[in-house]
Each structure stands twice: as C-alpha cells, then as structure tokens.
Design goal:
Blueprint lengths: L3 H12 L6 H26 L4 H12 L5 E2 L1 H8 L3 H14 L2 E6 L2 E9 L1 H21 L5 H18 L1
Antiparallel strand pairs: 1-3, 2-3
Helix pairs in contact: 2-6, 3-6, 4-5
Length: 161
Amino acid sequence: MSDDVDRLLADWRRERPDVDLSPMEVLSRVSRLNHLLDRARAEVFADHEIVGWEFDVLAALRRAGAPYELSPGRLIKETLVTSGTMTNRVDRLVRRGFVSRSPDPADRRGVLVRLTTAGRTVVDGALESLLRQETQLLAGINAEQRHQLSDLLRALMMRTA
C-alpha cells in the first residue's frame, strides 16, 4: 500500500540518493493531513455559517464553563492572536449575536466576553459536526492505533514547542 508521499519520496530517492529523507516521510504526511483537516473543518463550519476563527473564540468561551465568559486577555491566550485581532473578532461576534460584552466586576477597566445562547447553540452544533467529520477521517485506524498516534504526536509537539 502506498500513498502520494511514497511516490514523491521515490522520486527524491532517485534524484537525491545522498540525502536522508526520513523527516519527509513523517512531516509530509502531517502536512497533507493538515490540508485535508483544514478543508474538512472549513466545510463543517460553513454548514454552521461560521468560519474557523469564530469557532476558536466561541469554543474557548464554551470550554470555560458556566457562565461561559472570559476576559479578552484570556481569549488572546486561548486563541494565540494579538490584542487588536481579538478586539476585532469580539466586535464581529457581538454584531452576530454570538457573544456579549459586560464590565468586569473585579476590574473597573476590564470587560468580560460572554457566550450568548445563540453562540452556544452554534458552537455546540459545529463541535458535534466536527467530531463526526474527524471520526470519519480517522476511520482507517483502530482505537489503539489512535492512542499510539496521539502519544507520538504529543511527544513531537512537546519536543518542538
């Protein structure tokens, strides 16, 4: 059984037998899987009339637990964007009715961003659809293999982070 990466590696081995292609064996597959996952996620999110960054912000608020609110600073840490980007994103989500802003009772200068009922409905629906899609993407490997792959990817992530 071979895939596109096997074919490109064969070409490289023919053209450059002098180099170690082992990193490409793993990372080219990770890259191609990332591309497939990005496309699948975009389709799922489009079905729910949101885009990826909206899901990221709404999901961070949903994971926070009741009352589903975080400070903009915490949202920045959760989503890895700049302050200006987060302000723009929260503004857009407020206009869509997915989040609201309120003063932070613990900090007179601060605000809290809270998930609305509409935001919770859309993020929960998108999550369920996303998990169905991702389950299909992983259908070729069993639960033990998924666990092993997860462990290996975690080890790689911790090493490179």
